[in-house]
Write a structure and sequence with these properties.
Layout: E1 3-6, H1 7-16, H2 21-29, H3 33-39, E2 53-56, E3 63-66, H4 70-83
Antiparallel strand pairs: 1-3, 2-3
Helix pairs in contact: 1-4, 2-3
């Protein structure tokens, strides 16, 4: 399901993740770590892949349209667990 989120909000979620979470997400989904970084706004396409993230210009870094929210859902769950 497609979701639109502010780029600033997406980066805030990434920055709130516990240490090692990017690697855990990548391992769980059996994708390169760089692909998860790209999902959160990174630009490592040499080893990673694009993952259905489309960034549109706008305030606070613009808006991001996510084709698949699997990585986002996993990240949000990890952030919630960290805060609990």
């Amino acid at each position: 399901m497609t979701k639109v989120i502010k780029f600033k909000e997406l980066r805030k979620i990434k920055d709130s993740l516990p240490d090692g979470s990017i690697h855990k997400i990548a391992e769980s989904l059996q994708i390169p770590v760089e692909t998860v970084w790209n999902y959160f706004g990174g630009y490592s396409y040499e080893k990673g892949q694009s993952c259905g993230v489309h960034i549109e210009p706008g305030p606070d870094g613009g808006y991001v349209s996510l084709d698949d929210t699997t990585i986002l859902d996993m990240a949000l769950e990890m952030v919630e667990t960290k805060e609990a």
